[in-house]
Specification:
- The chain is built from 9 helices and 10 strands.
- The chain is of the alpha+beta class and about 260 residues long.
- The chain has an 8-stranded mixed sheet with strand order 3-9-8-7-4-5-6-10, sandwiched between helices. The chain has a two-stranded antiparallel ribbon with strand order 1-2.
- Helix 1 crosses helix 2, helix 1 crosses helix 4 and helix 2 packs across helix 3.
- The protein is elongated.
Length: about 260
Amino acid sequence: MNQSALDGDTQLLRRAPMLAACRDGPVSRSTIAERADCSRTTAYRATTELVEHGLLEQADGGYLLTGFGTTALDRIERFRAALDGARRLRPVLDCIDAPVLRSNTHLFTDAVVMEADSEAPYAIEQRLESIIANASERIYGVSTSFGSPITLTRTVDRVESGVDFEWGLPRAVLERLENQHGDLHTRIRTHQNTTVHVVEDPVVDFSLYDDTLVLTGFDEDRGTLAAVAVTDNHDARAWAERLYRRYRRRADTLDSIAF
């Protein structure tokens, strides 16, 4: 990477507050300084520089964004949101190495993230139990594991209370589920509000409980929960819904498959 270009990009990131201050321009330098929380000297220097680089232009005694400036500001804000989301999701990203998640971290800037903690070994399960218990309409998702017996039991309870349940699991996980918790699995499948799909090679573990999205990261060596991210963000839920439909189109329903 060219060092000069990198230095220019770094400087542009620093000037982003001045660009944002001119979003509804024309804006005076004093207003830019106030909105960007900088001195008037800094605002003077920055506006001069941004005009020279074609990001701002003068009009009616103030400054406003050019087309290039508007585009640059939009990309800077997207970059920062993606980076903020990546920082928040770090424990989950350490478990889920999937481009489809990495390219959408901007959707998770407000997610609540929990990591496995030896001093509070049941904290994640308790959080998931609470989320499952509050589901009243629909539970659906895709996973590379069937979770703990406790969360599985709570899910069965919700299914038996009438909550729609639709799940995708790899064949190997379904076989383990039958071997280890066949009675619970059978109870789920006896209900008409249940559909189980065979999904091969899912790359993201996620669950939707009504309006709550949960990303789940598993420790591959231990097969245990390592981290979860929980969010009610509408755009994050819409992303998960699209991803789920993509998996479902490629899946087979369990009733059509002979093990």
